[in-house]
Amino acid sequence: MCTGSPLRGARAQAEPEQTLSRGRGPGAFGLVVTMLSPEAERVMRYLVEVEELAEAVLADKRQIVDLDTKRNQNREGLRALQKDLSLSDDVMVCFGNMFIKMPHPQTKEMIEKDQDHLDKEIEKLRKQLKVKVNRLFEAQGIGLGETENQEGRELSTWTWKGRDEKPLPGKPELKGFNLNPLNQDELKALKIILKG
Fold it and tell me: What pTM was computed for the model?
């Protein structure tokens, strides 16, 4: 005679369970309290940490995509304003689900300010994303270049040769230097310095 689900029976054999069925404890509502071994608790903490870090990375990526979509819409609006040469006419601007008539120069200035704000926000998120991805890799043990763990057992490390190529076993992954490309002003200054 089977009194519970097969999963619960298998779990009962692997781990001791406590059920509080009388009184006001959790078992009174049909909840089962499972006592985990220290090793299982450590694994559970590890998995929770990795999941939280991965969720933070995915949330930042989603936010970057959303902001980039808004930036592209603003770019389309600026291009439409540039094509329209009549500066004296008012233009219709969409705010959410309503349209408002605004002067042409004021609209262009407002969209340009919004573009600058979106550019700064996306750049900030990308910098944070690099840090979060590095933390996630460190939590997963990827790219640390370690050859032994705390118990002295040898760990296998992997190095990626290229985007579509397989990793090479035995060599640690190269870490980045978190370098940023030169902006236009820095590039102009560098060209002036190199010309002498």
Answer: 0.58
